[in-house]
């Protein structure tokens, strides 16, 4: 139907726009305090970027991407996540030659994944995220975790639990994967079809399976097989988190769904009203991704948090911010001459930074007052024949039900203060 949004998408309507704007403002304000700068990348990229960056063994690449050939017969994909595009931009603009670390953030980044729409999960969704390039110390891991917690709390989402893990580096992971496959092989016939498909391609993802979790409680953990460098980094991360007073739990089952992760991975969880845990932020290190995509060896780390999911949690918790009135002042008029004067006054108020309007539907005064009430406007200026003759306007305080006469020449200055 032409009058129905495609499945898995939703409109951001005017009555909800203030919530998005508040989330975006909180993101910008918190990132600015830590020296992060905004980046915006295209909503589509060459398909190969995601095949190489996200990983052609992942569910995202194999099952969920919106991919098509353009008129030049080039394979194009609507971006399923924000990191790969940010890395591509970092390399293409030679930002690695600038002062490092390079600290970036993005707001309301549109992402697309073809999956079954459900609560808090859409086919077009939007992410706030952070990417840091050129910082290898675990202090930046703790910093972005702290920023994520600040952002969630700034939007009324508390009761947060931080889970962390290390999935090692290519050096120590190779030997671990052999050990993991040896453990999984005899159990493989009893595992779900998805796990069986992952056995050769990406066996660590099997540990993340919700269906088979009870069968794998004694699986070998990557944490017990870290090389010295990865173990030291993970220990340092915990020290930095403790220095910030951030409570955490180690969860050896966190592997994240994308191939580019190394060392630190983390998730921030909150509970829904029925007690079901819900991930509201996830991220980690990707120290080999810049090099994999053609840039110089550069460590990286980042996170993403879905805006629609944050709004869903706000609704569940009853902490959604109230919609502010779109106007400071409404001008109500009676008669053509008064309407012309009101039109001039509205524009004079706007010139001074006052949000002002009048009724462009040319309704009765009574209807104009009803309109102002519906918009929640606190102050109304009344102009009619008597006011024009006396060179005044009436200023009505809608909250206090008080009305005073103010000289026309003074009203703009009065309200601009």
Q: CATH homologous superfamily of the largest domain - what is it?
A: Bira Bifunctional Protein, Domain 2
Please give the alpha-carbon distance between the first and last residues.
50 Å
Name the helicity range.
25-40%
Percent of sequence in beta strands: 15-25%
CATH class of the largest domain: Alpha Beta
Number of strands: 16
Question: What is the CA-atom radius of gyration, in angstroms?
Answer: 28 Å
The tally of domains stands at 2
Order of helices and strands: HEEHHEEHEEHEHHHEEEHEHEHEHEHEEH
CATH architecture of the largest domain: 2-Layer Sandwich
Report the biggest beta sheet as strand number plus sense, adding barrel if it closes: 8 strands, mixed
Question: Which blocks of ≥5 consecutive residues have pLDDT under 50?
Answer: none
Helix/strand/pairing category: alpha+beta
User: What is the typical, i.e. mean, pLDDT?
Assistant: 92
Keywords:
417 residues; alpha+beta; BirA Bifunctional Protein, domain 2; Rossmann fold; 2 domains; 8-stranded mixed sheet; 5-stranded mixed sheet; elongated
Describe the structure.
- The chain contains 14 helices and 16 strands.
- The chain is an alpha+beta fold and 417 residues long.
- The protein folds into 2 domains: 14-169 and 227-317, 2-Layer Sandwich (BirA Bifunctional Protein, domain 2), CATH 3.30.930; 329-416, Anticodon-binding domain (Rossmann fold, 3-Layer(aba) Sandwich).
- The strands form 3 sheets. Strands 1-5-6-11-10-9-7-8 form an 8-stranded mixed beta sheet, sandwiched between helices.
- A hairpin with a 5-residue loop joins strand 9 (262-271) and strand 10.
- The radius of gyration is 28 Å and the shape is elongated.
- The relative contact order is 0.12.
